[in-house]
Design a protein that fits this description.
Blueprint lengths: L4 H16 L4 E6 L4 E3 L2 E14 L1 H9 L3 E5 L3 E8 L5 E19 L3 E9 L2 E6 L9 E11 L4 E8 L4 E15 L3 E3 L10 E14 L4 H10 L3 H10 L11 E13 L3 H11 L1
Antiparallel strand pairs: 1-6, 2-3, 3-6, 3-14, 4-8, 5-6, 6-7, 7-9, 7-12, 8-9, 9-10, 10-11, 11-13, 13-14
Helix pairs in contact: 1-5, 2-4, 3-4
Length: 273
């Protein structure tokens, strides 16, 4: 039996072109699960996102003697000092939460990260003092970063009538460093797994709505005018205040494994013939 060589070549070209021009798919990979897209499986999501408080936010917390606790599954990284009067003050503070979801688009050649979800956060509490009117509490957790709109969403639980706000658009970030796109081989045959990893830092966190200073922070923490001035300074963008509430550093790893597509098997068959 004889085959037309031109027909075989054309078939091979068409198969490759089909793989190279795959439709862009958007998927969310969650912890412990696997998704399949355009000839690759993506799995083994791991990593964390760490919210580091700015110096001005640390100053505001010290002004109102705010206490902090971790909201599971986050962990707090806190450094303190004690002054001559015996008062304990924060020097630095950060909340590290595990990454639980990664949303990305994949066209068969390029993976583009679109959003990152984390689980956990921090709980701030207050008692009556010179910067507050009384007891209060504010929990900010489960941050979700949308890279397409540069918006950070959070689950918020506040005392003194603030209540629960889920997936609330809390902050906008000014800039991001680190890779957010990754190149893969279109239509790659089955082969060894590829580790995709990145470290990104979101800088310049300022409120989406400046009214949240009063509607959320002042109200939930029961701040008086002294306490309000401290938290208001955090969100007041100036030439010397480019950090706002702080920064978020994420470290994420995903395993991408090529999967032979039917067209690959067909092309292999043609090659054997």
């Amino acid at each position: 039996m004889k085959f037309n060589k031109s027909l075989i070549a054309a078939t091979a070209v068409m198969m490759f072109a089909g793989a190279a021009n795959a439709a862009t798919e958007t998927n969310t990979l969650t912890l412990g699960n696997t998704i399949v897209s355009n000839g690759y499986s993506f799995s083994d999501l791991s990593g964390s996102g760490t919210l580091s408080f700015s110096k001005l936010l640390i100053t505001a917390l010290n002004l109102a003697s705010v206490g902090m606790q971790a909201v599971p599954d986050a962990t707090l990284q806190i450094s303190t000092s004690t002054n001559a009067a015996g008062a304990v003050k924060y020097v630095s503070a950060a909340a590290a939460a595990p990454v639980t979801g990664l949303t990305s688009s994949f066209d068969g050649a390029t993976v583009t990260v679109l959003a990152v979800d984390t689980h956990g956060g921090s709980l701030q509490t207050t008692v009556k003092n010179s910067a507050t009117n009384g007891a209060g509490s504010l929990s900010i957790s489960d941050l979700k970063v949308d890279l397409t709109t540069k918006t950070i969403y959070a689950d918020i639980v506040g005392a003194n009538g603030v209540g629960t706000l889920n997936d609330y658009a809390l902050w906008k970030y000014d800039s991001i460093s680190g890779p957010t796109t990754f190149s893969l081989t279109p239509g790659a045959p089955a082969g060894p797994a590829i580790t995709l990893s990145s470290t990104n830092t979101l800088s310049g966190l300022f409120l989406v709505n400046s009214a949240d200073i009063d509607n959320i922070f002042v109200k939930a923490l029961n701040l008086n005018n002294t306490g309000r001035s401290g938290i208001n300074a955090v969100n007041n963008r100036t030439a010397t205040n480019v950090d706002g509430f702080g920064s978020i550093t994420s470290k994420i790893t995903v395993i991408a494994t090529p999967i032979p597509e039917p067209s690959t098997y067909a092309l292999m068959g043609v090659g054997l013939v």
